[in-house]
Amino acid sequence: MTAEKNRIVLLDGGMGQALATRSRRPVTPLWSAQVMLDEPHLVTAVHRDFIEAGARVITLNSYSATPQRLARDGDPGLFEPLHAAALDAARQAREESGREVRIAGCLPPLVASYHPDSVPDDATCLRDYRRIVAVQAAGVDLFLCETMSLIREARAATIAAAESRLPVWVAFTVDDGDGTRLRSGEPLAEAAREVVAAGAERVLVNCSVPEMVTAAMGELAGLGVPFGGYANAFTSVAPLQPGGTVDALESRTDLGPDAYAEHAMSWVERGATLVGGCCEVGPDHIAALAERLTASGYRLVAS
């Protein structure tokens, strides 16, 4: 392979589930954000463990700190303190590691993952994604709009992120029975073209079963931009309702580190240049994937 083609951006894995295994506190709807208040040292430790495993990009632990989720499940006044704490944890982990790592800002679904019917109107989406961008932009190297289940949701997040003039990556969550479609039923290829037109530099699929991430790679290969994926390890996300907790979900037993790495390597074989993990994919999975990639002649990079 050429020097250019052997570069792979290795992302981190699922922060929320990694925290769940380390915290002594019960899971709440604001789970990962709640840990920022109660046990911030755990967040720094998880970031650091992903970096040690080989991740070259880590994502802020701010997924559940949106205006809508804080209003529903917590205190809206915590918006700025939670984002500041997430930035501090990521920066501390990077500094302690001494490695070349980029920090991705996080633009998640505003109301709930996997539920396109819960997405607010376009004006609200744009307003609140701009609020998130404003509090993160000075401390991150790029923005990752992730777990997007609806085209207009992804478009609003992309527009807000692109206004920062930082690189924008967009990750869609696809139907766990059809990797060519978003959870809204909209075609992935159409969604990808929309966000590229709005300013996305790279497009991914995330928080879907690995088999459907594999199916999605063919939909992204013709875009003309770098693409990739990072899957979850849940049996199904159907039981999770808005405002619920991940306690409702069951983990697969067939996706240990080696098995997960096998799936991710198949994405690379299909042209993916960005791979990592989502919920239930921990540092051990990322370490196994890093080992497979380097043994296959790939160079792990941050951009």
Characterization of this structure:
The mean pLDDT is 92. The longest helix is centred in the first third of the chain and has 19 residues, at 79-97. The protein has helices spanning 15-22, 31-38, 40-53, 67-73, 79-97, 122-136, 151-162, 188-198, 210-220, 257-269, 283-295; strands at residues 7-10, 57-59, 102-107, 142-148, 168-172, 174-175, 178-182, 202-206, 227-231, 274-277, 299-301. The chain has 303 residues and is α/β, with parallel strands linked by helices. The two termini are 18 Å apart. It is globular. Helix 6 (122-136) links the parallel strand 3 (102-107) and strand 4. The chain has a nine-stranded parallel sheet with strand order 2-3-4-5-8-9-10-1-11. A two-stranded antiparallel ribbon has the order 6-7. Helices cover 43% and strands 16% of the residues.
* Largest beta sheet: strand ordering: 2-3-4-5-8-9-10-1-11
Give the structural class.
alpha/beta
> How big is the Rg?
17 Å
Q: Give the number of helices.
A: 11
Query: What portion of the residues fall into strands of 2 or more residues?
Result: 15-25%
Give the biggest sheet.
Answer: 9 strands, parallel
Low-confidence stretches: none
- Helix share bin: 40-55%
**How many distinct beta strands?**
11
- SSE ordering: EHHHEHHEHEHEEEHEHEHEHE
- The mean pLDDT is 92
Head-to-tail CA distance between termini: 18 Å
General form:
globular
Quick recap:
This protein is an alpha/beta fold and 303 residues long.
